[in-house]
Amino acid sequence: MLCDCGSTLQYCSQCGKKVLAPASQDIQTIPCPNTVEDGRRTPVCGTMIQSSNRFCHECAWRISSKAFLPGAAMCDGNKPNGELCDNIMTPNMRFCSECGKPPK
Asked: What's residue 13's pLDDT?
């Protein structure tokens, strides 16, 4: 389920719209944006993933529906606990919701 603003809840917490499940013909394919593996930064995985999948079959990244939004990319910050941030950021975000880093 995905709202125009990237929410994956039944009702979007950002805009209040009811979120609808994408139709099967709306399945998107993009390169996997994951840059975190075994606790370290790596080059982008790049394996083609589909919006209907739950995990990347190459790097096992749990696919975020936000990754399919235009201009989305993985945050390169660090979480407060020291872990590498793997949140997906979109161009309309001023700061990462996981680590607080502003986008590049």
From this structure: 62
Q: Output the pTM of the full model.
A: 0.69
In whole angstroms, how far apart are CA 55 and each of 30, 34, 50, 91?
13, 11, 9, 23
Q: What is the β-pairing status of strands 36-37 and 73-74?
A: unpaired
Assigned token pair, 56: 């990347």
Dihedral sign from CA coordinates of 32, 37, 39, 43: negative
- Residue-averaged pLDDT of the chain: 84
| Residue-by-residue DSSP string for 21-63 | PPPGGG--EEE----EETTEE-S----EEETT-SB-TTT--B-
Q: Look at phi and psi of residue 54 and say left if phi exceeds 0, alpha if psi is from -120 to 50, else beta.
A: alpha
Residues 62, 74 contacting (CB under 8 angstroms): no
Q: Does 88 have pLDDT greater than 90?
A: yes
